[in-house]
Amino acid sequence: MPTETEILRTEVHELRMELGRIRSHNYFRAHTRWYRMMYFYFIRGVAMGLGTVIGATVLLSVMLWLLAQVEFLPIVGKWATEIARMVEAGT
């Protein structure tokens, strides 16, 4: 039967091995230097901003197109048609 010291030695060894695996992970390697961390967060921010802009553009385009198709409500249909014309004239 292993002694308490041997059990602790084994657990400490396993803990060191696990910490080594965690340190080798890309996320932690990117945060070892401040300039790497800044670069990582800069790229992350650019990607999030670009995704937000593209998503909002697609969502608004679909919503305006759907509103332009509504012609049984005279006020909403005319308003949406006018917005659609302004958007098309701008591009």
User: Rg to the nearest angstrom?
Assistant: 29 Å
Helix and strand sequence:
HHHH
What overall form do the CA principal axes indicate?
elongated
Helix content: over 70%
Q: What's the tally of helices?
A: 4
Distance between the termini: 79 Å
By DSSP, the count of extended strands is 0
Mean pLDDT rating: 83
How many separate structural domains? 1
Biggest sheet layout: none
Which structural class do the helices and strands define?
A: mainly alpha
Assess the beta-strand content as a share of residues: under 5%
Low-confidence blocks of residues: none
Structural summary, described in words:
The chain crosses the membrane at residues 39-68. InterPro entries: DUF5665. Keywords: Membrane, Transmembrane, Transmembrane helix. The structure is a single chain. This protein is mainly alpha-helical and 91 residues long. It has one domain. The chain is built from 4 helices and no strands. It has helices at residues 4-23, 26-30, 34-69, 74-90. α3 crosses α4. The model has no long low-confidence stretch (mean pLDDT 83).
Short description, anyone?
With 91 residues, the chain is an all-alpha fold. It starts with a helix and ends with a helix.
Quickly list its features:
4 helices, 91 residues, elongated, mainly alpha, transmembrane helix, transmembrane
